[in-house]
Amino acid sequence: MNQLLSFVIFLLRFCAFIRHWVSTLKNHLVARSICSVLLLSPIISLAQEKNIYDSLLSTANSLPSSPEKVDALIQLAMEYRYAYDSSNTVLYAGKAAEIARNIEYPEGEIDANYEIGWILRLTGHYDEAERVFKQIIADADAIGYLDGKASGLNGMSTIYSDQGKVKDALEINLRIYEIDKVLGDDGNLASTLGNLAINNEDLGNYNQALDYSFKAIEILGNLGDRRNTGYIYSNIGSLYQKLDEEEKAIEYSLRAMEIHQEIDDPQGIVSTSINLGSFFSDQGNYERALVYANRALEACQSIESPLDEGVAIAVIGRIRQLEGNYEDALLYYSRALEIGQEMGASIFISDCLISIGEVHKLEGRLLKARTSLKEALSMALENGNPEGILDATGLLASVESDLNNYKPAYEAHVLYKEMADSLSNTAQAKEISRLEAEFEFRQEKDSIEFASNNQRIALEKDIENRRDLQFATFIVLSLLVILILILYGFFRSKRKSNSLLELQKKEISDQRDELQALNSLKDRVFSIVAHDLRNPINSLQGLLSMVKEDGALSREETTMYFGRLAENVKGISNLLNNLLYWAKSQMKNGLQPVPEACELENYVSQVIELYAENSRSKNIKTIVDYKSSVPCVFVDPEILLFILRNFLNNAYKFSAEGSTVTISTIPVGSEEVKINVRDEGVGMDEKTKNSLFKDFVDSKPGTQSEKGSGLGMMLCKEFLNLSSGSVGVDSEPGQGSTFWFVLPVAQ
Question: Is the pTM value of this prediction over 0.85?
Fold first, then answer.
């Protein structure tokens, strides 16, 4: 134990030196989601005067080794814990535990070890903290020390809450609640009520959580405990936010902030600032939301609790997402996820993954979105987190639908509907019955205590009659509940059947639309084959007929016609390539890319050489501008060549004589690269840009009447989607065009 204590003191002093990286977690966030921070530690006592440390230390030093000296050292350690001074907390708690062992004062040793266990938990050393708390429970049971047992159980419940084991934490806190009622300690009772409120919120029981919170407020008001009243107000604010009562949410959170600032409580300022940042971001007041989120992040530097910084970072990510700044949002969410993974905080990890998946979906990165959302759903199901399940399944159904994976989309949608129905069905009738019974019981008890002996006998007889009536009423109500459950099951089954029918109707409608689109595609392809392929071949046939006749063409005419013929044949070749790729993509199994590491520079050179004659005929200068070392891209080589051919051919086609075409690359983070093909041609209007990648387009002739099929850009878009890439164009009429595409870098 002494070796463990020395190690902890050294570790905590080192952590104090680098505390700016310590971060924290608690509930979600995001939209879903990152919208509340609840108190996870037990509610702490009133702040003492600053000279309490010197006073307690002086008292402890003046006493011989005795229970009084142990208690003074424990109180000193507790005050340092309240001030977030972990090193001194462990130092004095360790001294107290050693003295308590030497003088055989087991209660003191238990209380001292509790302070050490609490610091281990705050600094994320959950395994060591759990061992300490379990030992405390065993030692307290051995000597019948109820207060110590409650402390050990409280430590275990906070660890389970941090790790997302909400049901386990709730079960332990209910045990603590019964012990606190036996001990009659109002301060501990209020603390346990606060923790029960948190557990019920995590499980989606918001009304039950409010009930526990207001009971705690009543007790704390009688005790004059301002600090913990502030924490409960903050919790109530987050509960009202989840119940969509925004005015009450902000009202109680501002009350909490006023108290935390008044008593200079950094932990309270952190948690309440995070809540207010979430509330104002949901209202669209991003400037004010950012002020509170940054205030929380700044306040985190003054405490040693890895429970808040991660949430503050995630809230900032949410604000950036709502502003449309998806790149910054991903950076913040990823940092928050790292913190959650370091802490082993499964609920927070799940929420971060949902937020990351949502941003990927908004950016069109559907495969990455699906990966994040599946991982988040798995963790939410494991933890029994209803909000996480609801958010993950809702987004996952949308992503799978966008990927045309209708069966997984339907399965996710069914799970989403079931969870939504579950959250909307509350146990109001049961709660009202419980409160009425409790109220009647209290009235009867008060009447009996203040009645005379004769009245008491009459009241007791009346109570017995009422119990008989209540029993009969219970039987009737039970039968009614059974009937209601049967009816509920029937209607729920009917609702599921209706939902399935609606989904099937939608699938049939979608298939009809798809068939109509395919017919339209077929007509367009036949038109291309009939016109764009037949005309050049007819020209070739006529020219060959003239060549057969001696003297029909002069040498100059032959050279001229053969030059035009070469252009026609090249156009036919491009058209056939595009038609073949399109046909392959429409087959049953579609085009199956086989990606590999491709040296981008080599492929660019090949395509430039392929179109060298096009550039020479128009006197176009081709510039290759690599901003940094050219990376290898991870893509099917045929797809890469196809995209480069279409982009470069397009650039030469619409460029004027004597102009310039520029090919450049720009890194996108560390995992992707952007390739730009810039021309100085005729440019495009907004309508043309919007339709360019969506379907067949009517190809316009180039600056020297070059023809196209209208297939190339649509296929580029489709192939890049299959390759985890993206494509776009920047253009203005008369200002030229920049076609770009993004591909993953080979690792």
Answer: no
Asked whether the beta carbons of 682 and 654 are under 8 A apart, the reply is yes
Residue pLDDT, tens place only, 508-518: 888 887 787 66
DSSP 745: B
Residue listed under structure tokens 């316009």: 700
Beta strand ranges found along 308-374 (DSSP E): none
Please write the tens of the pLDDT for every residue from 227-258: 889 889 988 988 888 888 888 888 898 998 89
Burial class (CB in 10 A: 0-12, 13-18, 19+), 704: middle
**Which backbone phi and psi does 604 adopt, to 5 degrees?**
-65, -40
Rg (CA), the chain: 36
Q: Which residues contact 309 (CB under 8 A, 6 or more apart)?
A: 22, 23, 24, 297, 300, 339
Give the closest residue to 278 by CA, choosing from 286, 268, 270: 286
Cβ atoms 240, 273 nearer than 8 A: no
Question: Measured between alpha carbons, how far is 336 from 123 in angstroms, rounded to an integer?
Answer: 17
Give the bridge partners for 660, in sequence order: 621
Q: In what order do the strands lie in the sheet containing 737-744?
A: 621-626, 660-668, 672-679, 737-744, 726-731
Residues 603, 645 contacting (CB under 8 angstroms)? no
Instruction: Read off the pLDDT of residues 640-664 as tens digits, 9 standing for 90 and up.
Output: 998 999 899 889 888 888 899 999 9
- Note whether 209 and 202 are within 8 A (CB): no
Q: Which helix (H) or strand (E) holds 679?
A: strand 672-679
What pLDDT does residue 133 have? 94
Using CB atoms within 10 Å of the CB of residue 54, give its burial: 0 to 12 exposed, 13 to 18 middle, 19+ buried. Answer: exposed
**CA distance readout (Å), 471 to 121, 342, 438, 476, 493:** 47, 53, 15, 9, 33
Integer angstrom CA distances of residue 453 from 34, 444, 460, 463: 59, 14, 10, 15
Name, in order, each residue with C-beta under 8 angstroms of 268's C-beta and a sequence gap of 6 or more.
227, 230, 231, 234, 256, 259, 260
Neighbouring residues of 138: CB distance < 8 A, sequence distance ≥ 6? none
Question: How far lies 701's CA from each of 484, 532, 650, 682, 732, in Å?
Answer: 71, 12, 11, 11, 18
